[in-house]
Design brief:
Length: 174
């Protein structure tokens, strides 16, 4: 899939109302952290930043040609990977980004147990480069010094079969 200007314009045209709803759900998901500065990595069209709570600064980064702020700090209260991790070819390239995070929030489809994987709606070999289970996702973040705080499906509805997870960095040195 090409995340180009046509994709960006289509998302704005067809999904802005749902994008606003999901952004608010995501802010509720991380609200217990009381973040002041957040990095939305893989920010897409920028809905998470657009509907941020008053007083929260959000920096945005994406590979696409969308308007974004880029990364500006050496530490973020939360680095968010909303619908991103399954699209990253080399997870090792995220290590510098993870080093900037006190917390990590993510949403993604987790591989279903007991279902025909090839018939699963999120089985998209040309788009999804990785498929995680809860166990493999936890192992990935533990490798970078994070422990899971919570997991759930707050975006369902309006979405289907999407899991959100929140991790906290262990032994942060400031």
């Amino acid at each position: 899939m090409d995340y180009d200007i046509e994709y960006y314009e289509k998302m704005l045209r067809e999904y802005s109302r749902t994008g606003e709803e999901i952004a608010k759900i995501r802010w509720d998901w991380i609200s217990e952290l009381g973040p002041d500065v957040v990095l939305d990595y893989g920010s897409g069209v920028g809905w998470f930043r657009a509907w941020r709570p008053k007083g929260v600064e959000v920096h945005t980064f994406d590979i696409g040609p969308y308007p974004q702020t880029r990364m500006k700090l050496i530490m973020y209260d939360v680095v968010c990977f909303w619908d991103v991790l399954e699209h990253i070819l080399d997870m090792g390239k995220l290590e510098p980004i993870l080093s900037l995070a006190r917390h990590v929030a993510a949403s993604l489809p987790l591989e279903p147990e007991g279902k025909d994987f090839s018939r699963w709606k999120h089985f998209k070999p040309d788009e999804h480069l990785h498929y995680y289970t809860e166990k493999t996702l936890d192992a990935l973040f533990e490798r970078y010094g994070f422990k899971k705080m919570k997991i759930g499906q707050p975006e369902c509805p309006p979405r289907e079969d999407i899991t959100s997870v929140l991790y906290e960095k262990v032994n942060i040195a400031f």
